[in-house]
Design brief:
This protein is mainly α. Helix content is 64%, strand content 0%. The chain contains seven helices and no strands. The chain is elongated.
Length: 180
């Protein structure tokens, strides 16, 4: 019987199915190991939570006056009050575009002017005393929810809904501008 030489161009690999030296081959179920891990984790967390740490028992500080996502950096209240009427006029200036059926152009103009108006209005609201803020925030919500509804109505090309949303926006803007 002649011994065959292994071919270097076509080597034959056979998988080694024996367990690795670090693996244990026991008949114990794996669930017991995960339960002990869960128990260790829960006991360590409970000891941390129920410790007399003053960090966990302290109340959080109240929110500060400004949320920087809505406020334009460097914008003063005087700047906002000076530009809010111009941005309001530019928001209301989309009416001819809506009436002519230029839906995409109206949406583009409305989004641009409402973003600037939103920054101004929010800066003005934050500068007011605490007693005036709830009414102004309600008008803020009505105004910009109306803008969002108008945007959706314009994308659907729904003429009657567009007119109704525009009327609500116009009324909310007039009331807001009369309060500041």
């Amino acid at each position: 019987m002649e011994a065959t030489k292994p071919s270097l161009s076509h080597p034959k690999f056979q998988p080694n199915l024996s367990p690795l030296p670090l693996q244990r081959t026991t008949d114990r179920p794996r669930q017991l190991i995960s339960v002990t891990r869960r128990l260790a984790l829960s006991s360590s967390l409970s000891s941390f939570v129920f410790s007399s740490s003053p960090v966990l028992l302290r109340r959080p500080e109240p929110a500060k006056a400004f949320e920087f996502g809505f406020v334009k950096p460097g914008q003063t209240v005087e700047d906002a009050e000076g530009t809010v009427r111009g941005h309001a006029r530019s928001l209301l200036a989309v009416k001819p575009l809506l009436e002519s059926g230029s839906w995409e152009e109206a949406q583009r103009e409305m989004r641009e002017s409402s973003a600037l108006l939103k920054q101004d209005v929010y800066t003005i609201i934050q500068s007011r005393p605490g007693g005036e803020r709830p009414r102004l925030r309600k008008l803020y919500a009505d105004l910009f929810n109306g803008v969002l509804r108008l945007d959706y109505a314009a994308s659907d090309r729904d003429g009657p809904q567009v007119r109704q949303c525009y009327e609500k926006i116009s009324a909310a803007l007039e009331e807001f501008l009369s309060l500041i």
